[in-house]
Amino acid sequence: MKSTTVDRHIGLLNLAKTLSFLVVFVAGVVVGMTASSQINRYFVSQAKLYFYSNMNNHFSAMQIPNPALRNCSSEANLTHGFSDNELFWRASMVPRRAEYPFKRVPKVAFMFLTRGPLPLMPLWERFFEGHRKYFSVYVHALPGFELNVSMHSAFYKRQIPSKVSWVEESANLGPGIDVLQWLRVMDRGCMSFQSVEWGTVALAEAERRLLANALLDFSNERFVLLSESCIPIYNFPIVYKYLINSDYSFVESYDDPSRYGRGRYSRNMLPNIKLYQWRKGSQWFELSRELAVNIVADTKYYTLFKKYCKPSCYPDEHYIQTFLNMFYGSLNANRSVTWVDWSMGGPHPATLGAANITEGFIQALRNNGTVCPYNSEKTSVCYLFARKFAPSALEPLLNLTSKMLQGVLGEILVQGKQPALSIMAAPGGF
Questions:
Q1: Alpha-carbon distance 230 to 112, whole Å?
Q2: Residue 377 DSSP SS3
Q3: What's the domain of life for this entry (predicted)?
Q4: 388 vs 215: CA distance, rounded Å
């Protein structure tokens, strides 16, 4: 009996020990899990803190290639600081939605390629007067030249950043020499200068730079290239209607079998550009927005021209002309809207001065017997602009505008859709 009681006490003692052990074990597990949770939370929070801290430091240290890419008001800000690569990349963007999220009036971009001053600017000011919402102006001049005009001028703050300068090579070059005849291109890589003549790739690059800057404004629908020696030969409403309502661009592009055409072709352009695709034409173009974007976005074919269209091959007479012929011929009218006088012969057109400017002369420019296609119709209005005019032509041209270039010109034949702007000129303007 006594032995049984002792055994029972021993059993209860062992059970108590076991229960105590289990309690301690469970308590340890609970404490351990709680501690582990706190530790994990601590280290996770520290890791997050470290991660976000480093991410913030990383983004703070990141150098955005050009902050202007995030915020560009194209109409007001032409001093955007873009490199050419950034500029062409931005200008190549095309919205995929047809509608615009803002009120938009289609505009014509007038792009002036000049060495510096614009001696015929007062004539253009009169041409633009009263039509501010329907046009944009862009001026590409030599580095170092600053266009200084009144804040009320259509040219105010319309000079784009340029990488190319054009200068007279000697004191013998008179005022009749314009942007096409002598150029000086800056080698940006080593800051040296390379002398080049009229028609080199420097001119084609300046044209593309003008196009790219004008494309930054989504309201620009048509793009016309002009020089400091160009004049308009119709009033603004006629020019606007003619261009905005056109189904085609106006780039002269033809096959010239002579040494001045096919003779400038380089077989190094094979297989991408073949001889039968090679074209020549006037550098004074007018483009739709669609074609302007495609030209600025092109790197493949333009690179070939930069590399192989030299020294006697002039890219400004061949690149756009060949490119459009290869891919967009059906969208091109194959003619220029800028009249040039080649009757004197030689490598450069005639320069016209004060003695040439008469009422009959301007009428002859308009009604020269030429008939050309305009959309699906025929018209005698084939030219909207003319060149080359010397500074001395300014005064007689201004004297003619009040009598010649106002409202009565509205009866010319221009077929197509109804214009957004009346064909009649505003009083006091062209």
A1: 9
A2: strand
A3: Eukaryota
A4: 27
